[in-house]
Amino acid sequence: MSFIGIQSMTGFSSRTFAFKGQQFKIELKSLNHRFLEIKFRLPRELNAAEPMLRPLLEGKIKRGSIEIWVEKQSAAGANSEIQLNMTQALRAYGLLSQLKNEFNLDTGISLRDITGFPDVLGKATGVWLQEGEWSEFLGALVTEFNHARDELVKMRQMEGEKLRQALLVIIRQMRETSQRLNEQREVIRQRSKDKIKKKIELCFEAYPTADAQMRALMESRLAQEIAISLDRLDIEEELTRYAGHIEQLEKLLSVPLDSAANAPLGKKLDFLLQELNREVNTLGNKSQDLEMSQEVIQLKLWVEQLREQCMNLE
Fold first, then answer.
1. From CA 18, how far away is CA 22, in angstroms rounded?
2. 4, 272, 301, 308: most buried, per Cβ within 10 A?
3. pTM (2 decimals)?
4. What domains are there in the chain, each with its CATH number?
């Protein structure tokens, strides 16, 4: 059985590719987030590519904060390398020639005039391509971006599987604890009943009465109070709901998501854990036994561990 739909929200991927003698790098980083948040860190020349790239992520990832970097890598790692943008230089020369003719100027066009235009000279980190090359470059960018996205999803799935296994280990321990509490319930109930009876006997010994009818009435009334007290302390309903929540958690983590409309798990698990935590707190409030109190404390620790781990699931 495959569980490839279960994803962690943390992951990383990186790709490099060459185009027309220029080296480019794509990096994707994923962190936890309540919803899907996508942040692009692109060179100014590639801002127009964002609407093309964004849907490619939205179709594969449902939750998480995703940061995307696309940058040109300098040759030989020289960050200060200067590069000439010949296309921009020709535009600058054409515009200056047009101005010269328009105003009948006798002055010549100097190198300083041309290089004074924006983007004619600059660091090699800029993306400089001929006009006819942009369509081909964007196609290569989309192809490499898809590879980087698939690698990110694969890492998120691997981390998600590790989390799933860790969650199931904790849940099985919680199921075993539930079974022990169920076995102890009648013993604890009888123990509580004996304690209450003992206190009543001590009360009658301290304040004896010769009136047999009054004593019978008091014993009858006290028996009713004992029954009410024991009912309030009984944990059967809480254990039943608790076991139901554990069963639902196991079911969610044991069914492939691609067979259940590929819905994100994180929010469902968080809601279930809130309900489970409520039942554990009620068990703690009803605890009248040291052994049971210790079991409940351990359950609270496990619930907290589950909630922390589930925060990483998509």
1. 5
2. 272
3. 0.68
4. 11-79+130-157 (3.30.230), 82-123 (no CATH)
